[in-house]
Specification:
Keywords: DNA-binding, Phosphoprotein, Transcription, Transcription regulation. Helices cover 50% and strands 13% of the residues. Helix 2 packs parallel to helix 3 and helix 3 runs parallel beside helix 4. The longest helix has 14 residues. The chain has two domains: 125 residues, Rossmann fold (3-Layer(aba) Sandwich), CATH 3.40.50; 67 residues, Arc Repressor Mutant, subunit A (Orthogonal Bundle), CATH 1.10.10. It is α/β, with parallel strands linked by helices.
């Protein structure tokens, strides 16, 4: 059973998502919160698999909520998915940097919402290649100050190659084709790189690849 926490200051949004999710045999909404502070308390109490978190809320917003969840070892198994009305804006980008597994626009069709919750619960990448490329474009358009990163030197050559291909927006199957390996081996390289770089997910790998200088943005 996938246990979901809803964190949004709009009761109508929460009730709509709950009604949809609770119809599924393998998904259960365990609690709702109206702001990030309440959401954090419930996350620590209930340890959900997935937290759907609105990016703009009173008291504690979605970015700070994500940052605190990512920094808390007790909540290592909680996968944050950001909810937004605006698509991939600067706030979403900051949330991805803070540790969110991905994001959903609130007008998402029901089938995509259910799929995204299941993907996030598995710990798999929630960002499709097209979204990864948009993330890259956002980084190129408004680059953040790069900081020193540790762990990059621990990557093997193959792991570096896999991370670079992730940063260019390739899927696991495409990475496997490019590296002439099996998709399972490609996934293993990516997972090991995530562990060494302390990245929670694919989104953070993309950011780390650019901030560390492993990959240089290619201006069209």
């Amino acid at each position: 059973m996938i246990r979901v926490l809803l964190v949004d200051d709009q009761p109508l949004i929460r009730s709509g998502f709950r009604a949809l999710l609770d119809l599924e045999d393998d998904i259960e909404v365990v609690a709702e919160a109206g702001d990030g502070q309440e959401g954090l308390a419930l996350a620590r109490e209930l340890l959900p698999d997935v937290a759907l978190v609105d990016i703009r809320m009173p008291v504690v917003d979605g970015i700070e909520t994500t940052r605190r969840i990512a920094a808390d070892p007790v909540l290592a198994g909680v996968h944050v998915v950001i909810l937004t009305n605006y698509g991939l804006d600067e706030y979403v980008f900051e949330a991805l940097r803070a540790g969110a597994a991905g994001f959903l626009v609130k007008d998402i069709v029901p089938e995509d919402l259910l799929h995204s919750v299941r993907v996030a619960a598995r710990g798999d990448a929630l960002l499709a290649p097209s979204i990864t490329r948009r993330l890259i474009n956002r980084y190129v358009a408004q680059p953040l100050d790069p900081g020193p990163r540790t762990g990059l030197e621990e990557l093997t050559n193959r792991e570096r190659e896999a991370v670079a291909l992730v940063a260019h927006g390739l899927s696991n199957d495409q990475i496997a084709d490019r590296m002439v390996i099996s998709p399972m081996t490609a996934k293993t390289h990516i997972n090991r790189a995530m562990t060494k770089l302390h990245a929670r997910d694919r989104a953070q790998l993309v950011v780390l690849a650019y901030e560390s200088g492993l990959v240089t943005p290619r201006h069209a």
